[in-house]
Amino acid sequence: MVGLVRPAGVDDAAAIAGVHVATWRTTYGGLLPDDFLASLDAAGYEERWRRTLGERSDRVYVAEDRDGVVGFASGGRERAGETGYSGELYAIYVTREAQGRGHGRRLVQAVAGGLREMGLPDMIVWVLRDNTSARDFYEKLGGVLVRTQPITIGAALLQEVSYGWKSLDAIRY
Ligand SMILES: CC(C)(COP(=O)(O)OP(=O)(O)OC[C@H]1O[C@@H](n2cnc3c(N)ncnc32)[C@H](O)[C@@H]1OP(=O)(O)O)[C@@H](O)C(=O)NCCC(=O)NCCS
């Protein structure tokens, strides 16, 4: 089945939170402390997603297949004041079982469409330096390395890197 990507509504909050917690655990095992990953609380994230979706300021999309929601992505105005970028891909997560089937590419396409609608012509994304498979994905899409900075997640001090597309037209699907 070819997956479908659609804008998310408040009713998707629980499914998004479920994907969020599950994919953080599969993606960040070994990168983030075990106790931090064990403590992630789907109910807490559901509440946060419900608020985010209700506010309607971020663009949020879900990817579905016959099993239901298997991925999500969000984006909007760049948050950190990075010179040269006004749009940002905030998050993109596809469950391990559903990876490699084009959901990620379709989700990026949807977020880029949302940024365009907001009048934002470019896109930056931050990713943990050691998350090599996500970095491969962004490089495949034509992202150019912008810079590295430290980030604290839970009790872990890590490095994150950013990839940028100076024009949304430069994203290589
Ligand atoms: C990164 C992620 C969003 C990509 O989504 P996906 O659905 O697996 O990717 P797609 O199937 O759309 O792949 C798009 C292209 O990128 C390539 N790609 C995807 N993952 C890749 C990887 N780990 N290494 C190399 N290339 C990769 C694919 O080969 C594909 O190109 P192809 O069709 O020519 O082969 C997804 O794997 C994911 O959620 N990973 C875990 C969470 C994560 O790290 N999120 C990012 C946090 S910043």
Summarize the entry for a quick read:
With 173 residues, the chain is an alpha+beta fold.
Give an overview of the whole structure:
- This protein is an alpha+beta fold.
- It has a single domain, classed as 3-Layer(aba) Sandwich (Aminopeptidase), CATH 3.40.630.
- The protein contains 5 helices and 7 strands.
- It has helices at 13-28, 34-39, 42-55, 103-117, 132-140, and strands at residues 4-7, 59-65, 68-77, 87-94, 123-128, 144-153, 156-165.
- The model has no long low-confidence stretch (mean pLDDT 96).
- The site of coenzyme A has 19 residues, from helix 1, strand 4, helix 4 and helix 5.
Helix and strand arrangement:
Blueprint: E1 4-7, H1 13-28, H2 34-39, H3 42-55, E2 59-65, E3 68-77, E4 87-94, H4 103-117, E5 123-128, H5 132-140, E6 144-153, E7 156-165
The structure holds coenzyme A.
| Percentage of residues in strands | 25-35%
- Please tell me the overall pLDDT: 96
CATH fold name, please? Answer: Aminopeptidase
Coarse structural class: alpha+beta
What is the terminal-to-terminal distance? 19 Å
Largest sheet: 7 strands, mixed
